[in-house]
Structure formats: structure tokens, C-alpha cells
């Protein structure tokens, strides 16, 4: 087995590599058969890059997303995010890593219904004991402001539209200022207008704040918002599309 | 005063007596009243090696005994719910003609030595109280279940005198001799 | 750590379910309180009724029941002379020959009730040292001294047994001369008569028992020896504390039944609660997974779920305490031996609190483990 170094080198395009997958496989037992949604996958993502993952259902894109987000661990291979090989972390360590380094955006927002928008965004900050209440509140206010929902802080999820819920979820993902954002079909449940707002936000985080974003999507329009789109089929990367412009795509 | 020392000496004495009895070296009787060091009382309880020939039943004694009379009486320990006293050398002796609770087929009876089913008058005629005194004429402090290891329903013979307070209705024997029969089957 | 407010608000998610949980836990804890108070009350009154310093001389063969026992009247003076180490006060030996009798008394209103009657002489106060006359005086012939709680046993108001009132027994009227207390004992439920009155009216020539108070519990052997030396009196010497301990043992099956009932209901409640809790947690599997994705550890989430469950059961415990204070505390219960009060003692309160805690913890352990056992990627998709 090849041993890789942390991704300090640059990729061919001159960008600093932030995510490096080498020979990453994931398989699990389903009844009596072993399913392998990802097999010997290699992938580099640069710091601040906005990457879209496309592919048919069952192609392994969510599996890859979960591995990158530290939700799941690869069966074999190495998966470096920034300076950390996630493949070497145990469950508890992965949990702690996620809290600091990764924001997750879900298709169905996954907001806690009994908490207000403000409290939902505050949830990840409660894990950091070093923060004072005042510091937490100013961070939450800033995050909500960034997604344009400062005036909805006291609303419960049921009192918000889908687009607003997703923007609260985005605020929750960025409030700890992680280097990595992962999004699983973030526009899959939204109308076009709301989808555009969400995609604009993601582009902004990538370009303005140098957040590395990996987004799974079925939607070619959404994928267009990304700088690069990868297609997965049967656990393998089959095509790479490089989008050179950093301007928002017309939708 | 009855002291712990006294009890110790009584115990020692009984142990010695038991040993001698067991060895069969005693023909008639042993009187080994041990003197307490400067003590006020001497324990007197003589273990008899054989049954005195003059021994009579409790029933007979009830009819003939009068206070002050020398007497030897044979019977079984029982006839009441708790026939052996707790801390004094005293027990209740009853003739075997009395129907004990274990003889009426009550297997689960907790007090098989009691005679609760016997006719009260008959029981009264065949029952007497035995008490061993110390040299001061006071009841001897001794747990007879521990030393000499008496149990309810044991066959015993006691020798002594009929107590001054004894009446035809209530026979009390102030005993000094005790013979315990090997278990009868 | 998840804030406690998260657990609190989760509770309020479904008020119906919350009500069920709080009510269920409340009923179980209430039952524990009730069973505990009942058992402790009964045990306390029986153990307080017997003093280790007192010996009861009962008729041989009636060692279990003083009411059935018959003791020759001369046993009282013979015992006073024949038993060593009897307590004396102002020259009076603590020997009390008594008649215990259960019979019907009739009130002026026509109300009839079974009463525990005791025929005594003034020496009864030398033997039963906890007895104090609260109101009125010691009864003369034709009068009766009434235990403080006797009215409960007889089903009448306290006024109907206050000094000056009359009751009828065996066709004769008796005036209440006074009220006595004997805290925590069965005596408080009794009616005390002049012994001669009671013996005459019931045509008894024998006593029920002779109670002797000794200098120390160790002097019992002397009373025991007396009973063996006076076979003609047909006596059995029993420590008063042993007598009541035996009575207490007699009631043990009843006490076991109360605990068993409480335990069975608690078991049912736990199984019901487990189901409900599982349903409550299962409907939140995705939310719990999201919290993990955000960075909350499983133990932290697990703790929050247990917290949530505990909050409900402790609310139930509070409810139970309220119910006890309203419905149980201070209530008197009758049983054949007398009347006892139900009180929420420290021990019982602790038992109830522990029950509440256990219900909360046991009720949430397995549901929480099952709900958090799902793998994170699939829980996020559920």
C-alpha cells in the first residue's frame, strides 16, 4: 500500500490541495452480499474550490460526500482533508473533527423543529466551551445576517419558507467558520428562486471566504454554479468538467 | 453475685464431668463442685452415670412427694411450649405416658415436645418443674441447652429434694443430680 | 453537551404524550409511597407497641392471642412476688393484670361498633409507660378512659368519645372519664375500663394476661423461670416485643401483597413507558443523527434523552408527592389490631424519589440505545 503525505503540494492547476482521496473504497454488508458503492477512487479538491458531484442514484456520490464530511469512514485508502487523514480517526474523533472543520447542508434542511432559527444556528457553537454567551450570540447574528435572515432569528422552522429554512441551515453550517462545507442536494427541495439564492450563497462562500465546498446534486443547473463538476458512475469518476469562470451562472 | 467467672467454672466442671462419664470410670456419681476463687457460690450439678434404682415416675412423685423429701424422678423434657429455661438451670419434666405433639402425626409442628392435645388434667398430674440451685440456694445460672446440652424430649432422671414451696398441684424439685439417657429409639 | 432547554422543549413537543408519561410515573410513585406508608405504618405501630423491657404472661397455649388467653387472677400477685428485677416506682411494682376483650359498644345515636376493650388497674400506667392522660382523669367504676384514636376504629367523631359522653356496653352505660395517648401504639385505639367492671360484665373470673415491667430486657429469664416454676398457673412468659413481632409477622403476607401489587403495576408502567419512549425517540432518529453530524457525541445525545425522560418521571414524582400530601398524609387506617397513621417518612420519600429516577433511567435506556444504534449515514436519510 502506498503511503501518502498530507496534501501540501499543489495540483496541476496551481491550487493548494485541500481534499485528497487516494485509493478510497467503501463497502458494507447488505444481507449476505457485500456492496461496494465506492472503489479505489482518487480525487483532489483545491482549497476554496466549489465542486459539484453528479451521477445517477446509487453511483456513490452521497457515500463519497459522507466520507469527505467525516460522517462515515472509508473501508480502505486514505482521505486527507486539510492536514487530517480522516481514515485514521475513530468515531468519537470524527465527531469532534466534524464539529470544528465541517459544515453539513442537507436536502431537507434538518432543522430542529422545537428550536428557533437563532437557536438552531447556535447549536454547533454550544460545543465550544471557550465561547462566552455574548460571543456565541454575535457569531449567530453574523451568520444569520450573512444569509439574509437577521430578521427571522426568533422564528421556528415551521414559520419559515423552504428557502429560508435552507438558509438557516447554511448559517448553521458556517457559524463555526469551518474550512469545508458539504451539501447534499441543497436545492433539491426548493423552487428556482430559492435555489438560486442558496447557490449564490455557496458561490460567495467559495469565492469570498475561500471555503471548500463539495455539493452533491442531480440538477445540472445547480452543478453549473460550481467551478468543477465530477460525474460518478458505479463508484468511479467518469468525467470531469472544469468551469473556469468564477461568475455566477445564469439560471 | 453471679459472675462470668462462675459461669466459666460451671462450664469447666460440666466438661470435666462429661469427659469422666464418657470414659465410664465413674461407677456411682461425681460431685465435682468447683470452688470459685473467693467466690460466694459454688455450682453443684452432678452428672449421674446410672439411673438411681429409687427413681419413680413424675406421676408417682406428684402423688407421694412432700416438701423436703429426697427424691429421684424420671421423665422426658417437655410438656410445655418452651420446657427449658433460657438462663437458669431449670426445665419441665413430664412422664412419657403423656401424648407429645410429635406423637399425634403432626409433622410440621414447631414444638413437638409440647402436649397441647393432651387432656389438661392428665398433663398436670404428670408434670413437674426441676430447678438446680447454687450453694446460696439461688437458681443456678446456666443455659442447659448449651451445657450439658439438653434438648427437648430428652429422657432424664433427676435426684434432689422436693422444694419447700412445692404443693400437690405444683411439684418443684430442687435437683442436684442429673442423668441423661442415650437417645431412645 | 446539549442544553437542558433542548430536553425540556422536547418534552413539550407532544403534550399528550407528556401527560401520559408524567401521569404514569406519578401513579407508580404514588403506589410506592402508599405501599411504603402502609407497611411502615403497620410495622411501626406493632413494633412500638411492644417494649423489650415488658414481659407478658399469657395462658399456655394462647401465646398468639391475648384475647384468647386466660390467666388465673392470683398470677398477678404471685408474679409480683416470684419474678426478680421488677421495676418499682414509689413503692408500686410494675405488674399489671389485664383483661383484653373485643366486643360491641353502642353509642347514644344507636351506632354500634366492635371495640378493643381493656380492663385495667392503676398499675397499668406503671407497665405501659408511654400512656399519658391528655384530658380528664383515670376512670372510676362506671367510667371509661378512651384512646386518642379509638374514634377512628369505632367510626365516630372525636366528640362522641370526648369526656362526659356516654357509651353502652353489655347494657350498661359508661361515661367517658378521659382521653389518653400512647403515641404510635395499638393502645391508642382501645377503650380502658376499670378491670372489675369489665370482669363483672363479661362474667370472667380470669385475667387475659399479666404484664410485668422489668429493670432491663435481660431480666426476662427471671420471668421465664417463674412461668416454669409455677406450672400450676399454666403460664407462658413472652417478651412484649416478641409478641408484637409475631403479630407483625402474621400480617407479613398482607404487606408483601401491597409491595407485589405496586411492583406489578410499576413493571407494567415500565413496559408501557418503554414502548412510548421508543416511539417518541424513533420519530426523531433523523434529528438525532443531525445533531451527531453537527458534532454532538452519542453520549451527549444519550444524556439529553435520559434527561428528558427523567424530567418527565420526576415531574410525575412531584405529582405523586402532591397526591400523597392531599390524599394520604395523616390518614388513619384501621386493622384488627388498631389504628395507624399513614405518613410520608424520609425513607419512603427517598424510595419514591429513587423509583422516579429508576423509571426515568430504565424507561429511556433501551429506547435511546436502539435509536442511537442506527448507523449515522442511514439515520441521516431516514
Outline the secondary-structure elements.
The complex is a heterotrimer of chains A (251), B (185) and C (382).
Chain A: E1 17-30, E2 33-46, E3 50-54, H1 61-68, E4 76-81, E5 84-85, H2 91-101, E6 102-105, H3 117-122, H4 133-146, H5 162-174, E7 180-184, H6 192-209, E8 212-216, H7 220-225, E9 228-233, E10 236-242
Parallel strand pairs in A: 3-8, 3-9, 6-7, 7-8
Antiparallel strand pairs in A: 1-2, 1-4, 4-5, 9-10
Helix pairs in contact in A: 4-5, 5-6
Chain B: H1 4-23, E1 46-47, E2 56-57, H2 58-64, E3 70-77, E4 90-94, H3 120-125, E5 127-132, E6 155-162, E7 172-180
Parallel strand pairs in B: 1-7, 2-3, 5-7
Antiparallel strand pairs in B: 3-4, 3-6, 4-5, 6-7
Chain C: H1 4-12, H2 15-49, E1 54-59, H3 75-82, E2 88-89, E3 92-93, E4 95-106, E5 112-120, H4 124-127, E6 132-136, E7 143-147, H5 150-154, E8 166-169, E9 172-181, E10 190-194, H6 195-201, E11 209-213, H7 220-229, E12 235-239, H8 240-250, H9 252-282, H10 285-294, H11 298-328, E13 332-335, E14 338-341, H12 346-373, H13 376-381
Parallel strand pairs in C: 5-10, 7-9
Antiparallel strand pairs in C: 1-11, 1-12, 2-3, 4-5, 4-11, 6-9, 7-10, 8-9, 13-14
GO cellular component, one term (chain C): plasma membrane
Transmembrane segments (chain C): 18-38, 257-280, 301-328, 348-372
Protein name (chain C): ABC transporter substrate-binding protein
Amino acid at each position: 500500500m502506498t503511503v501518502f503525505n498530507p496534501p501540501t503540494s499543489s495540483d496541476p492547476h496551481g491550487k493548494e490541495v485541500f481534499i485528497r482521496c487516494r485509493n478510497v473504497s467503501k463497502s458494507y454488508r447488505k444481507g449476505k452480499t457485500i456492496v461496494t458503492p465506492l472503489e479505489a477512487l482518487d480525487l483532489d479538491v483545491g482549497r476554496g474550490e466549489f465542486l459539484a458531484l453528479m451521477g445517477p442514484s446509487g453511483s456513490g456520490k452521497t457515500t463519497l460526500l459522507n466520507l469527505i464530511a467525516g460522517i462515515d469512514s472509508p473501508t480502505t485508502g486514505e482521505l486527507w482533508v486539510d492536514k487530517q487523514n480522516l481514515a485514521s480517526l475513530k468515531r468519537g474523533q470524527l465527531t469532534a473533527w466534524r464539529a470544528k472543520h465541517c459544515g453539513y447542508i442537507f436536502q431537507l434542511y434538518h432543522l430542529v423543529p422545537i428550536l428557533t432559527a437563532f437557536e438552531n444556528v447556535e447549536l454547533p457553537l454550544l460545543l465550544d466551551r471557550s465561547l462566552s454567551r455574548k460571543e456565541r450570540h454575535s457569531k449567530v447574528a453574523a451568520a444569520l445576517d450573512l444569509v439574509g435572515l437577521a430578521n427571522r432569528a426568533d422564528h421556528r422552522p415551521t414559520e419559515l419558507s423552504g428557502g429560508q429554512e435552507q438558509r438557516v441551515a447554511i448559517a448553521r453550517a458556517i457559524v463555526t467558520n469551518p474550512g469545508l462545507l458539504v451539501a447534499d442536494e441543497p436545492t433539491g427541495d426548493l423552487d428556482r428562486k430559492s435555489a438560486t439564492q442558496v447557490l449564490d450563497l455557496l458561490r460567495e462562500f467559495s469565492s469570498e471566504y475561500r471555503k471548500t465546498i463539495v455539493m452533491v446534486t442531480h440538477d445540472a443547473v445547480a452543478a453549473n454554479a460550481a467551478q468543477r463538476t465530477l460525474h460518478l458512475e458505479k463508484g468511479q469518476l467518469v468525467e470531469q468538467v472544469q468551469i473556469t469562470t468564477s461568475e455566477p451562472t445564469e439560471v | 453475685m453471679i459472675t462470668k467467672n462462675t459461669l466459666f467454672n460451671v462450664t469447666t466442671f460440666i466438661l470435666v464431668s462429661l469427659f469422666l462419664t464418657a470414659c465410664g470410670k465413674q461407677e456411682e456419681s461425681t460431685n465435682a463442685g468447683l470452688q470459685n476463687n473467693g467466690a460466694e457460690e459454688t455450682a453443684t450439678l452432678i452428672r449421674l452415670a446410672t439411673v438411681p434404682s429409687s427413681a419413680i415416675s413424675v406421676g408417682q412423685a406428684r402423688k407421694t412427694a412432700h416438701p423436703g423429701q429426697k427424691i429421684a424422678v424420671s421423665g422426658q423434657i417437655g410438656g410445655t411450649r418452651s420446657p427449658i429455661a433460657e438462663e437458669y438451670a431449670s426445665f419441665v419434666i413430664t412422664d412419657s405416658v403423656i401424648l407429645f405433639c410429635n406423637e399425634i402425626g403432626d409433622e410440621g409442628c414447631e414444638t413437638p415436645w409440647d402436649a397441647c392435645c393432651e387432656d389438661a388434667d392428665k398433663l398436670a398430674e404428670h408434670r413437674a418443674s426441676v430447678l438446680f440451685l447454687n450453694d446460696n440456694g439461688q437458681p443456678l445460672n446456666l443455659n442447659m441447652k448449651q451445657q450439658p446440652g439438653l434438648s427437648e424430649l430428652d429422657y432424664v432422671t433427676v435426684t434432689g429434694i422436693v422444694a419447700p414451696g412445692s404443693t400437690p398441684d405444683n411439684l418443684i424439685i430442687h435437683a442436684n443430680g442429673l442423668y441423661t439417657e442415650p437417645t431412645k429409639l | 453537551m446539549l442544553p437542558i432547554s433542548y430536553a425540556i422543549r422536547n418534552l413539550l413537543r407532544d403534550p399528550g404524550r407528556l401527560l401520559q408519561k408524567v401521569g404514569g410515573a406519578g401513579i407508580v410513585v404514588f403506589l410506592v409511597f402508599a405501599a411504603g406508608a402502609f407497611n411502615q405504618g403497620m410495622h411501626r405501630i406493632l413494633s412500638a407497641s411492644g417494649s423489650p423491657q415488658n414481659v407478658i404472661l399469657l395462658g399456655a397455649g394462647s401465646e398468639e392471642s391475648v384475647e384468647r388467653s386466660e390467666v388465673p387472677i392470683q398470677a398477678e400477685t404471685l408474679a409480683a412476688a416470684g419474678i426478680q428485677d421488677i421495676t418499682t416506682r414509689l413503692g408500686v411494682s410494675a405488674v399489671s393484670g389485664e383483661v383484653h376483650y373485643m366486643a360491641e359498644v353502642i353509642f347514644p345515636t344507636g351506632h354500634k361498633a366492635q371495640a378493643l376493650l381493656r380492663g385495667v388497674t392503676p398499675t397499668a400506667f406503671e407497665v405501659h409507660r408511654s400512656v399519658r392522660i391528655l384530658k380528664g382523669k383515670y376512670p372510676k367504676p362506671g367510667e371509661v378512659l378512651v384512646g386518642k384514636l379509638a374514634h377512628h376504629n369505632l367510626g365516630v367523631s372525636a366528640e362522641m368519645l370526648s369526656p362526659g359522653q356516654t357509651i353502652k356496653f353489655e347494657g350498661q352505660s359508661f361515661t367517658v372519664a378521659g382521653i389518653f395517648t400512647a403515641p404510635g401504639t395499638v393502645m391508642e385505639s382501645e377503650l380502658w375500663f376499670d378491670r372489675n367492671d369489665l370482669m363483672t360484665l363479661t362474667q370472667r373470673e380470669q385475667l387475659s394476661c399479666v404484664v410485668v415491667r422489668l429493670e432491663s430486657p435481660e431480666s426476662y429469664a427471671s420471668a421465664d423461670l417463674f412461668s416454669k416454676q409455677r406450672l400450676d398457673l399454666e403460664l407462658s412468659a413472652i417478651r412484649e416485643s416478641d409478641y408484637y413481632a409475631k403479630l407483625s409477622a402474621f400480617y407479613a403476607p398482607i404487606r408483601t401483597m401491597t409491595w407485589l401489587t405496586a411492583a406489578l403495576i410499576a413493571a407494567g408502567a415500565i413496559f408501557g413507558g418503554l414502548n412510548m419512549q421508543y416511539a417518541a425517540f424513533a420519530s426523531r432518529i433523523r434529528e438525532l443523527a443531525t445533531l451527531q453530524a453537527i458534532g454532538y457525541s452519542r453520549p451527549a445525545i444519550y444524556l439529553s434523552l435520559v434527561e428528558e425522560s427523567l424530567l418527565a418521571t420526576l415531574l410525575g414524582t412531584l405529582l405523586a408527592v402532591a397526591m400523597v400530601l392531599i390524599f394520604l398524609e395523616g390518614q388513619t387506617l384501621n386493622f384488627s389490631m388498631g389504628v395507624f397513621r399513614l405518613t410520608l417518612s424520609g425513607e419512603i420519600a427517598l424510595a419514591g424519589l429513587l423509583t422516579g429516577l429508576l423509571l426515568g433511567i430504565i424507561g429511556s435506556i433501551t429506547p435511546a440505545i436502539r435509536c442511537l444504534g442506527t448507523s449515522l449515514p442511514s439515520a441521516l436519510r431516514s
